[in-house]
Each structure stands twice: as C-alpha cells, then as structure tokens.
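Before we proceed, please read the two lines closing this message. Report back on whether the structure tokens fit the sequence:
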Amino acid sequence: DLGMPAASPDGYYEVAISNTSATTYTLQATHMAGGKQDDDDECEMFQTDQDDVQYAENSANQDKTTTCWPR
C-alpha cells in the first residue's frame, strides 16, 4: 500500500513511499528500532526520488548524504 511504511524483508529498514504522482515519488528507508541496523546511528535514514536525488541523515538529524551515499 503506497504511503504505508513496510519492513524490509530482512528486518533492516522501515520503507515508505511518499510524494507520489504520475511522475514523482520519494522513497525513504529508516533503520528499524531494535532491528539489525539499529546501531547504525551515522546513517539512520536514506531517501531518494525519481530524479535520483539522494539524501541521508544521522540519528541527530544532521545531513550525512556524502557519508551514506558515496559516489
């Protein structure tokens, strides 16, 4: 169901889709509390959109895009 968070198959992340239209979307993955990635405070949330614009935050809500999405 679009817009409803869902757990990743291996229990690492909660995945949500938002900002959906015929031409846009935003995907967000946040590590699940108590899950296998729970100790990863440096890259707590990942986000990307239809244009491959990537963003990531640590547990203090600081921008960590270059750390978590290396190119």
Remarks:
- The chain has a mean pLDDT of 87.
- The beta strands are 6-7, 13-18, 26-31, 45-49, 54-57.
- Helices lie at 65-68.
- The radius of gyration is 12 Å.
